[in-house]
Amino acid sequence: MADSITIKAQCLCKEHMFSASLAESALPLRAVCCHCTSCRRVTGSLYSSCAPWPNPSEDLSGLDKYSYSRHTDIFFCGGCSSKLFCRVVSTLGPAVYVVTGALENTPGLVEYSSHMFVGDTVDGGASVWLPPAKRWNGGRGSQELSLESSPASKGLLSASPPAGARASPSATPFHCHCRGVHLSLRSAADLKADPAEVSTTSCINPQSLKFKASADSCDSCRLTFGSDVNAWAFAPLTHIGFDVAGNSSPGLPEFPRSLAALRGAVTATRNRDARLGTLAVYDSSPDVERYFCSRCAANVFYAVRDRDGMVDIAVGLLHHPNGARAEGLLAWSYGKVGWDVDAAGGWREGIVTSVKSLSSEWMTPVREGQHIG
């Protein structure tokens, strides 16, 4: 049919590829962004985004399945951890949704229609950066939030620390949805940027002594997270621990302090440290390792072998009292999005442009002292 279009979804390793046809007039697909705590923990991103898949009877049996809730299952690639679909059972029957990060960047393919459970973020999370759409405090039909009345508005920044404040608290737990991975991140307050150590110069904001953090739109991260713009915090392995309170455990080995030690510990087949839980690793390129939960598929770490001693931590896993953006711990590079070239020319370009402009506009008057140079 002349007015028919085929859309495709795939995982990072390309082991799983799906396609479906729909009328071109049905575009753009209307995607819902969810900012709830559970979606942040099951992806590692600051939000999830899903749209109806045209084939409600799609065969998903080749994918790994995680029971996210009583009525919702998440389907992902067990090899590379890419989230692909969720199936929701309601009184109207089962419905299949595709995560938008798995879709191609065809112009006009997807449009964000609403933001749900913004209230869970405390600070507004990523909802204040993303393209304007209805913002709900909870589920659809709950209290509707304007930017001025949302938890993240300029007038309600009580959840965020003052500009120039040093990192706090001393330790922040982070975990995936199923809690198979449950670790802690000690603040950078005891560090200083050392030109001889890539693990500190790449990680630490020298003014605030907070860990640097940034948004990212690279294709590989998009496919593994399932979200279109994701966020990483950069931290030395010395500040990651097994104890969720950040304390040392006398008599027990520390969390691995080098990438080789981390990989060896995670892939060990004998005497594996049980505190590593469900942490698994996938080599997405010859020099890049992506760590994830093998049970619920949450992204955990990104590691590059020539940056020994440090990892990127998926910000959506952090459980910080200031909120989803963890501004008491992290110094954000507002106004910037890494690998924005990957979004150019397609429907994601507008999302990346929004994140750049709105994060810069919204935070500049209030957080100028925390920007990363």
Automatic annotation (TrEMBL):
<comment type="similarity">
    <text>Belongs to the Gfa family.</text>
</comment>
<keyword id="KW-0456">Lyase</keyword>
<feature type="region of interest" description="Disordered">
    <location>
        <begin position="140"/>
        <end position="168"/>
    </location>
</feature>
<feature type="compositionally biased region" description="Low complexity">
    <location>
        <begin position="158"/>
        <end position="168"/>
    </location>
</feature>
<dbReference type="GO" id="GO:0046872">
    <property type="term" value="F:metal ion binding"/>
</dbReference>
<feature type="compositionally biased region" description="Polar residues">
    <location>
        <begin position="143"/>
        <end position="152"/>
    </location>
</feature>
<protein>
    <recommendedName>
        <fullName>CENP-V/GFA domain-containing protein</fullName>
    </recommendedName>
</protein>
<keyword id="KW-0479">Metal-binding</keyword>
<dbReference type="InterPro" id="IPR006913">
    <property type="entry name" value="CENP-V/GFA"/>
</dbReference>
<feature type="domain" description="CENP-V/GFA">
    <location>
        <begin position="7"/>
        <end position="113"/>
    </location>
</feature>
<dbReference type="InterPro" id="IPR011057">
    <property type="entry name" value="Mss4-like_sf"/>
</dbReference>
<dbReference type="Pfam" id="PF04828">
    <property type="entry name" value="GFA"/>
</dbReference>
<keyword id="KW-0862">Zinc</keyword>
<dbReference type="GO" id="GO:0016846">
    <property type="term" value="F:carbon-sulfur lyase activity"/>
</dbReference>
